[in-house]
Amino acid sequence: MDLSFAHEQSQRALKQRNLLAIACLVLAILCFALVTMASSRDREVILQPVVPFKMAISSSGVSKDYLEAVTRDAAQLALNRSPETLQYWMDSILEITAPEARGPLKSKLMGILKDQEGSQVTQFVTIDWIRVDTEALTSEVGGVLHTVVASRDVRRENRVFKFAWKYEGLSLKLRGFGVVVKNDKDTPYD
Question: How many angstroms separate the CA atoms of 121 and 93, rounded?
Fold first, then answer.
């Protein structure tokens, strides 16, 4: 009798162990499937209220509206400067710049900072249009660049500025920007 009772107990324990092993295997497969789905799914962030309408960025790419809004803000930041705000201007541009582009850009910005420090030259832009290319991650801004000395508007030039961007994960960073120069021939901007 003890032998049959011991056999029954061991069969029950074996059955419980097998059920537990199957449950663990099912849970492991389920966890693996959930981790796979979570890592391959596009991430998305809803941006409000910095723009007049709902806008989202996702890990699958940059939307045209988002790139245009960021370009507008970057152009306002980069092209509007006065002697009183030069340090803030430079620091703000460097904050939105990709790490690999910070060194060369900082040296150029330092040159502008040294040239304008202590002067009465202020620059601002009035934007006429913005064109974006989400595939190449570039954008162009056209407008009038005003140069003011003291309180006098001494120069107004129609200019086109090009911005190059880098997008990783959910982060859009500036790679560089500059004025687009016309060729000597009467061709469109480079």
Answer: 19
Per residue in 111-144, pLDDT tens? 988 888 888 888 989 999 999 998 999 999 999 9
Q: In whole angstroms, what is the distance from residue 64 CA to residue 6 CA?
A: 73
pTM of the model: 0.68
CB 148 within 8 A of CB 177: no
pLDDT in tens, 56-73: 677 778 888 888 888 999
DSSP track, 153-164: EEEEEEEEEEEE
Contact by Cβ (8 Å): 67, 134: yes
Asked if residue 152 lies in contact with residue 123, where contact means CB atoms within 8 angstroms, the answer is no
Instruction: Give Cα 39 to chain centroid, integer Å.
Output: 20
**96 close to 74: Cβ distance less than 8 angstroms:** yes
How many angstroms separate the CA atoms of 158 and 180, rounded? 11
